[in-house]
Specification:
The structure is a homodimer of 271-residue chains. Chain A is α/β, with parallel strands linked by helices and 271 residues long. Chain A has a single domain, classed as Aldolase class I (TIM Barrel), CATH 3.20.20.70. Chain A is built from twelve helices and ten strands. Chain A has helices spanning 3-13, 38-50, 62-65, 68-85, 101-114, 128-135, 153-156, 166-174, 194-201, 219-226, 239-242, 250-270; strands at 17-21, 56-59, 90-97, 119-122, 141-147, 160-161, 164-165, 183-187, 207-209, 233-237. In chain A, the strands form two sheets. Chain A has an eight-stranded parallel β-barrel with strand order 1-2-3-4-5-8-9-10, surrounded by six helices. In chain A, strands 6-7 form a two-stranded antiparallel ribbon. In chain A, β1 (17-21), α2 and β2 (56-59) form a beta-alpha-beta unit. In chain A, α2 packs parallel to α4 (68-85) and α5 packs parallel to α6. The radius of gyration of chain A is 18 Å and the shape is globular. Chains A and B meet through α3, α4, β3, α5 and α6 of A and α3, α4, β3, α5 and α6 of B.
Chain lengths: 271, 271
């Protein structure tokens, strides 16, 4: 999917919501545990109930790897289901990968070719040659960690490196990498005031924003400082939507939570 | 496996060699491609031929994920084969994972419980709460990226942060994390002179050292500056050993390459 198509979808659906499919078997409705593939059954129900309210789904690979081959199968079935039935959805493999060049190429092959995701999240610690193999793919997007929403973000990301915070270095340095136009960045919602600074460095790139909802970030604050001329935001909510209820009507409850966020987004987009 | 057991194995085998199982189907002997699971067949032959010369195997997960479910099956078969037949081997999942706390717990479950690896590599960018879930596992080891062997290491890792290089910050900060005794670190061999500085910060921790061989690092130099009282080094070689030959006798060629490195290590250990 191209960035242009993503922006079109945002305006069409009046939503820049991304739903995180972080499926934990201990948290899903118990009646699903009898199914052959409970994770996929859960995802399918959530996707069918919410696809018109969001522009993106983001399975976090950890939640699938934890169940070994069965989990990897659930992941494959989920992405295949989305691509077949809702090809207008922007898919994100939240994998936070990154390794030396030839190894990153293998990860890029895994997520862009084998699983056919539109994008993958990567970690910046190993620098340019660990990220450029992902950037080399046409119409695929590489979403690099910049400023994350967790407490540990303050261990290194916000520390001063040669006159500015590490995350600013990461943003600025990456702008010079080959095919940098394919870069998006992860910026946590829990620090809305940082968005002003970030937009000075990357005025146009899309930002994937976790931390609204369960982690306490405010949608309005993030939009106030983070929105670009082309919206430029994908706001992720995982637990707040998918675990809205544990009963048989869980998908309806998820739809209601997603609809409430979509409505807020529609209001923001119209002003 | 405990650190004590690993050290015992090093002295028993007179080796601190780790063999990287980074299997690329385009690089293995062509006669294996007819097998049902070429990757596992390749690994099994390499392991059977070299297990007495090394103390550790390190499959890099990227090379398995690139082949989807089939690849994940090959990884599972490989680790199960090692654990069953050579339980004295220290196994490393080279996965470079790291995410917010509850997600890192899922990765830890994937590699320590589901796949039963002794250790996993992690990235430090997201800080304390992204690494501690791994450290919580008894007799399991978390190998954190400190100074990597690639060109991109100079993008951020060696830049000055509040008076010292970022990788030194990573080393020092992590010493204060819960269960820090379960930490090892990745330090590239291509920068032998750095080991002196690193040993001032972490005098005892094991260092996993890629970059000897294909990437040009010198074993003698690394040992000169990096060896601790308890050896404290795992020297990794991947391509230099496993792709020594593409003919039917590839496992013999791999054994010869491993034996040459083991012999060098034996000499170093005896002086």
């Amino acid at each position: 999917m191209t960035t242009k198509q993503l922006i079109e979808q945002i305006h069409l659906k009046k939503s820049f919501l991304c739903i995180g499919l972080d499926v934990d078997l201990t948290k899903i409705p118990s009646h699903l545990l009898q199914e052959e593939d409970p994770i996929f059954s859960f995802n399918k129900a959530i996707i069918d109930a919410t696809h018109h309210l969001c522009v993106s789904y983001k399975p976090n690979t950890a939640f699938y790897e934890a169940y070994g081959i069965k989990g990897w199968k659930s992941l494959e079935k989920t992405i295949t289901y989305i691509n077949k039935n809702y090809p207008e959805i922007f898919t994100i493999a939240d994998a936070k990968r990154g390794d030396i060049g030839n190894t990153s190429s293998m990860y890029a092959k895994a997520f862009f070719e084998d699983l056919a995701f539109d994008s993958v999240t990567v970690a910046p610690y190993m620098g340019k040659d660990s990220v450029e193999p992902f950037l080399a793919f046409e119409n695929k997007h590489t979403i690099m960690l910049a400023l994350t929403s967790n407490e540990g973000a303050f261990d290194f990301q916000t520390k001063n490196m040669e006159g500015k915070e590490l995350y600013k270095h990461v943003l600025e340095t990456s702008k010079g990498w080959k095919n940098a136009k394919n870069l998006m960045y992860v910026v946590g919602a829990t620090k809305a005031e940082y968005f002003k600074e970030i937009r000075k460095i990357v005025p146009d790139n899309f930002l994937l924003v976790p931390g609204v909802g369960a982690q306490g970030g405010s949608l309005k604050e993030v939009c106030k400082y983070g929105m670009s001329a082309n919206v430029g935001l994908l706001i992720n909510s995982s637990r707040g939507i998918i675990y809205a209820s544990k009963d048989e009507n869980f998908a309806n409850s998820a739809r209601e939570k997603a609809a409430a966020l979509q409505k807020e987004m529609q209001e923001i987009l119209s002003t």
